[in-house]
Amino acid sequence: MALQKQPGLPSCLRTVRYNQAVMTRDEILLAHRQFLFPSVFHYYKTPLVVARARDQYVFDADGNQYLDFFGGIVTISAGHCNPKVNRAVHEQIDRLEHVSTVFATEPQAALAARLARISPQGRLTKSFFTNSGTEANETAIVTARCYTGASEIVALRHSYHGRSALAMTLTGHSNWRLGGVSQPGVVHAHNAYCYRCPFGLTYPDCEVRCARDVEELIRTTTSGRIAAFIAEPIQGVGGFITPPPEYFRIVEEIVRRYGGLFISDEVQTAWGRTGGKWFGIEHYGVTPDILTSAKGLANGLPIAVTLARPEVADSLKGATISTFGGNPVAATAARAVLDFIEEEDLRANAAETGAFLRARLEELQEKHPLIGEVRGMGLLQALELVRDRGTQEPATPETLELMEATRENRILVGRGGLYGNVIRISPPLNIGKADVDEFIRRLDASFARCHAALAAR
Ligand SMILES: Cc1ncc(COP(=O)(O)O)c(C=O)c1O
Description:
Blueprint: E1 3-5, E2 15-17, H1 25-35, E3 50-54, E4 57-60, E5 65-68, H2 71-74, H3 83-95, H4 106-118, E6 126-130, H5 133-148, E7 152-156, H6 165-170, E8 186-189, H7 209-221, E9 226-231, H8 247-257, E10 261-265, E11 290-293, E12 304-308, H9 310-314, H10 328-343, H11 346-367, E13 371-377, E14 380-385, H12 396-408, E15 411-412, E16 414-416, E17 422-425, H13 433-455
Parallel strand pairs: 5-15, 7-8, 7-9, 9-10, 10-11
Antiparallel strand pairs: 1-2, 3-4, 4-5, 6-12, 11-12, 13-14, 14-17, 16-17
The protein binds pyridoxal-5'-phosphate (PLP).
Residues 132-134, 137, 160-163, 232, 236-237, 265, 267-268, 294 line the site of pyridoxal-5'-phosphate (PLP).
């Protein structure tokens, strides 16, 4: 058992046993407050201290069990601490843990070959591995600029692309753009937010005006030669905003006419999450030139990938390193996750159980006027909460109250949207209908509790 003496630290931290909890819940919260940047924010009035997890369940420091329908922000695709994935990880970590990308390793090579096979239309056959979605997007933008020789990028409002200076600039969501950063050469188009249409129109009579407006944006705010368009097939942090079926095909045609590449940011929507397909963009009949992903690929181990058409990848000339990119342990975990998804047919489960979840959420919508819209695809579903369905005033304080109530009812969900009024639901891909029924029962009880708390104010 590893034991370290660390004099000089507060008493609760002096002795660290790595395989056994030694800090109390309150000591953990205190250390978080004292030693972490305050920008490391948490859900709930008092942060939830998580001690362990298994399958679809998470356990807090007091031993309470929660049904996890958020999956560590859309990351737990194969269930927590999946035994098959973890067995592969254990074997790999004892064989080869790290050498960096300046050496070739089997886990990285095998994963790249596997991704080439499942990439959209089998066309994005080259991979660049990094550790986070942010880095994958950085790589995508640099590559698009090298390939096209142009520099301007069209991104979408309400998008989220990460936390580096460039990724924050790409992000069209002011809550996540810190430090007043803004790099030149990025413009933001209206997104396909049908529930709050930026043009005040209604689909389908709108003829997808937001997609056609991309041309006007390019002609009026860029040099007329762009490097790329980047978008999430379903905007994750934005609140699972799901464009209509023809949206991306219209945008793709415009983008290509102005010389740009199409980058699909699939940090949340890949690996079967949207049901039936490996990638979210495949539902829209568009084959991107570059696709980025991370999160669910290795079920919680840090790995990200930028996939590109070979000629696009080949344009990134000169050497570049990601020290931990394609790390053998994370790459092995990723392959084991992909195996698990294939063996258990989880893309089909995401479609079928996702449809079941969607229907049950729509039943809740009939019961609770707070639910303005239910949207999403597969096992990526959201509820947008409004004070009044007519005015669509965002129900932000009510959403915070509901979050507290879900905690009381021992379910985990996420929160998002520009106004923080969207409940995000993204359980592991291997949940069943009985889990959905239990989740809905507890969510229903949470709405009741939330109404009671609001009425008592
Ligand atoms: C669509 C999207 N892109 C990029 C990122 C950034 O990923 P990371 O947090 O791994 O840097 C996120 C993270 O939530 C995301 O949802």
